Amino acid sequence: MSLLGNILSAVSRARTSVHNTSSKMKELRCENSIETKYVDLTIHFIGASGIPKTDVNGTSDPYFVAKLDDQIKYTFVCSNSRTGRGPDRLACRSTVKVGTLQPVWNELWHIKNVPTDATLSVRVMDKDDSMTDDTIGKFETTVFPGAKEAEIQGPVLRRKGGTFWLKIESRPPSLPIDKAPPYTFDGPIRYSRHYSPTVGRLTRVNDERLYSIWKVYIKGVPTFFGDVFQPWNRNYKAAQSIFSAGPKSLAVRSGIQTAHKMLYARSTRNGFGLLDRPEDVMALLHGTRGRAPQAPHRVKPAVYTYVIVDEDQSLRFSETGAAFFVDFASKHALHANCAERVRYSGEFHPRPAGGWAAFADSTPDTNTRWELVIDNNSGTYSPNKELLPTLQALLEYNFPSFTIIALDHGDPALKESREACREYALNFRGVKQEELQPHAADNEETLIKHAAGNHEAHSEPTEAARQPSLP
Predict the structure, then answer these.
(1) What pLDDT is stored for residue 195 in this prediction?
(2) Which of 142, 239, 245, 354 reaches 20 to 30 Å from 421, CA-CA?
């Protein structure tokens, strides 16, 4: 029998032994020096039935985690009911479906350049209030196109965990490997909004956005940046206090990482969703109370601190004046969880075409062409300005409804645009001067103190942490 016949015969017997089939195909390909073939995939996670009862009330709170060949995992983490830990590396965790044995997810995952012999692995979990979730079961399948019905194999003491339905669509690659590396995430673009744990302890609140963090899973990061990263800046004093060797730097890192975990933890307050339409992106930038009744539904003139991290290819950002930045040595390190390298970092701000100085507040946002001005203003990672065109192209790919303008941190045009944004916020949108920079109200618990209460090693802020918050 021919090699192709052997493969097809193996596939026909693969319903209950998918992993062995994929392994066999890979072995045959290697033994016969067959070139790897790639496809673009859309995986539709439909739902499941027959999920076993795991809670005392006779139901479960199921979600799933999916991955392809241990190379990429579905990259959306959210919960609409419970609290829990943050995402794993590139973890594809679905929404948690509360109190059901027949969850319906209807979630999509687009991936470019997946080997045709790849294995899709899915683990179904039950969300608990504790730090550890229960495993309902798992299964594996090939990435051959078509509708699939998979039996969820439960743990040793629970033989069957129900039935899972999904559908896989396969297409010829849209980009060659040198343009889109294998297992390139291609959407949909999802986001989650998190809140500082100190938001409930405020004495004065003018804008809840000052206690908010956003994470957006953007497409094409490895396609545009390739193997280029921005390491921490060894010539920057604040970065040295975080990343250098020695007990003092270790203490600073531990405090920042504890705070990062709190900021990005899943909670009942988190918001989440898809960025399918231009208005979805605009909605992320809404939120000043201002003088006019419609101001909460208008784009806020604000400057944001951002990082694009390698950990999960996400864009993470918050307002530069966010209250939780008080007393931290680096805003960017806090967002990046003290990663020693990132893809890029800096600040950005939205503006109407022509800039805020020329904008009339009576003009509806929907009648305005919006621009996003982004830079490399990050002392912690000091991104190479030569990569600003790459950054611009990446954001244009993800947010085509915006005009992207990438400027170096030393460009006078950037300073002019940024200051016009802040002046407009002060004069027309009810923003207070102290809200433009990290601040804390009298008797307000700061995040660094809150984190110290959860980490004995940080009962007192370190000398580096007492310095003014820097990029």
Answers:
(1) 81
(2) 239
Three-state SS at 171: strand
In contact, 391 and 406? CB cutoff 8 Å: yes
Give the strand pairing for 403-407 and 370-375.
parallel
Q: What is the DSSP letter of 266?
A: B
Distance (Å, whole) CA 84 – CA 128: 8
Q: Round to whole Å and give the CA distance between 279 and 225.
A: 27
In the block, tokens 């579905």 appear at 74
Q: How many residues does the chain have?
A: 471
Q: Determine which helix (DSSP H) or strand (DSSP E) holds 427, and give its type and residue range.
A: helix 412-428
Q: What is the token pair recorded at 397?
A: 């790919």
Return the bridge partners of 286, or none. Answer: 299
Alpha helices in 64-127 (DSSP H): none
Asked if residue 190 lies in contact with residue 273, where contact means CB atoms within 8 angstroms, the answer is yes
Which burial class, exposed, middle or buried, applies to 176 when counting CB atoms under 10 A from its CB (0-12, 13-18, 19+)? Answer: exposed
Residues near 236 by Cβ (< 8 Å), separated by ≥ 6? 379, 380, 382
- Concatenating the DSSP letter of every residue in 193-250 gives EEE-GGGGG-S--S-GGGGEEEEEE-S-HHHHHTT--EE--TT-HHHHHHHSSSHHHH
Element spanning 381, H or E: none
Report pLDDT digits (tens) over 311-344. 888 999 999 887 667 667 789 999 999 999 999 9
The encoded tokens of residue 329 equal 């040595």
78-115 pLDDT tens trace? 433 333 333 333 345 577 788 899 999 998 999 999 99
- 187, exposed or middle or buried, with CB in 10 Å at 0-12, 13-18, 19+? buried
